[in-house]
Design brief:
Layout (H helix, E strand, L loop, with lengths): L1 E2 L4 H4 L2 H7 L5 E3 L7 H12 L4 E3 L13 E6 L14 E6 L2 E5 L5 H9 L8 E3 L11 H7 L3 E4 L12 H9 L3 E4 H4 L2 E5 L4 E5 L2
Helix pairs in contact: 2-3
Length: about 200
């Protein structure tokens, strides 16, 4: 299980997951946060004796069925703000590469761009629900996603996804899929190709 960062919308459902399913390890950003939900989650991880590992840029994990599981961010020293230190993962399965960006913002995107880890991907989980503080055009052009998935609730109070982000994705040549418009979005790959399935 990966905890990208300890904001409630990213950890709120994890306690029942850990209570229901066997978990071999938890990979997390390791930032300090004092919400009751996060404290309860950490207590449960400890009670169950689940190994807790910090994710840092350059880490690789062996995951059966994946050719590569690479951490792109965060790195030391950590940036300011919980979002910017989200765990960012690049997952490779054959010719399909997926970039999962948590809630990173422009500062973290720039740090990733300045690093030496590969960031190109066919599929991008758009950062921070399509917020205007993320998805700079330079970052999107470097990733070069054919498909971009934005996870945001319908009629959310934050105005996600932002029009500027959608414009940047269009300029980068990405086909955009939004949970706020179509609900559940599933990407299926056989390693040679992939398809995006809209769950009506």
């Amino acid at each position: 299980v990966v905890i990208t960062h300890p904001h409630f919308d990213h950890i709120g459902g994890l306690i029942p997951v850990l209570e229901t399913f066997p978990v071999g390890q938890v990979l997390a950003d390791g930032q300090i946060h004092t919400s009751r939900t996060y404290e309860n989650l950490l207590i449960l991880i400890d009670q169950k004796g689940i190994p807790f590992r910090l994710a840092r840029a350059g880490n690789k994990l062996e995951i059966p069925g994946l050719d590569e599981f690479l951490v792109l961010s965060p790195q030391e020293p950590l940036l300011k703000g919980l979002n910017n230190n989200s765990v960012v993962l690049a997952l490779t399965y054959g010719k399909t590469r997926v970039l999962l960006t948590g809630d990173i913002e422009a500062e973290a995107e720039l740090r990733i761009l300045e690093g030496d880890l590969p960031i190109e991907a066919n599929i991008l989980k758009v950062a921070h629900h399509g917020s205007r503080t993320s998805s700079t055009l330079a970052f999107l052009e470097a990733v070069g996603p054919e498909a971009a998935v934005i996870s945001a609730g319908a009629d959310n109070n934050y105005g996600h996804p932002h029009s500027e982000t959608l414009a940047n994705l269009k300029a980068a040549g990405s086909r955009v899929f939004q949970t706020s418009l179509v609900g559940t979005i599933i990407v299926v790959s056989d390693g040679c190709s992939y398809r995006v399935v809209i769950d009506d």
